[in-house]
TrEMBL record:
Organism: Halobaculum magnesiiphilum
Top-rank taxon, per record: Archaea
Pfam families: DUF7344
Domain DUF7344: 33-111
Lineage: Archaea, Methanobacteriati, Methanobacteriota, Stenosarchaea group, Halobacteria
InterPro entries per UniProt: DUF7344
Keywords annotated in UniProt: Plasmid
UniProt name for this protein: DUF7344 domain-containing protein
Length: 143
């Protein structure tokens, strides 16, 4: 799609005009890079892709485990609380505002949004191309 122009929400203007012929919205690379710019947002997207809808508490525990910064049970509780706060107030709202995920604040649940597919596909493609996964990425961070 060389030469495509995109609107302020990252949608291809060419695809917008051809909407009846194109069932799925496309997103520009900058939109995907912004959505996946933070490691925690990548973990959230990966977890939703692998396990489906989640509550923010479980997402925080998974992010904490992926960061391998849990030295003791007391620290793990503190770390999960910090991550919960960061996810609830920063990362989840960011992804929700981009329509990558849907966030039900009352229930505290997160589910894939209308732009989830292209973002997760891009994440998978990058991880495959760079031969990295969360486990490999953690090893590089630790070592």
């Amino acid at each position: 799609m060389t030469g495509d122009r995109f609107d302020s929400e990252g949608e291809s203007l060419a695809r917008k005009s051809a909407a009846p012929l194109v069932p799925q919205r496309t997103v520009c690379p900058d939109f995907v890079f912004e959505a996946l710019n933070d490691r925690r947002r990548r973990v959230v997207c990966r977890m939703l892709a692998e396990e489906g809808d989640q509550d923010v508490t479980r997402l925080a525990a998974s992010v904490a485990a992926s960061e391998r910064q849990l030295a003791s049970p007391a620290e793990s509780v503190d770390r999960c609380e910090q991550l919960y706060t960061a996810l609830y107030h920063q990362h989840v709202p960011k992804l929700a505002s981009m329509k990558v995920i849907s966030f039900d604040r009352e229930e505290g649940t997160v589910s894939p949004g209308e732009r989830f597919g292209p973002v997760v596909d891009a994440l998978g493609a990058v991880e495959t191309a760079l031969d990295c996964s969360d486990a490999v990425e953690r090893g590089r961070m630790d070592g």
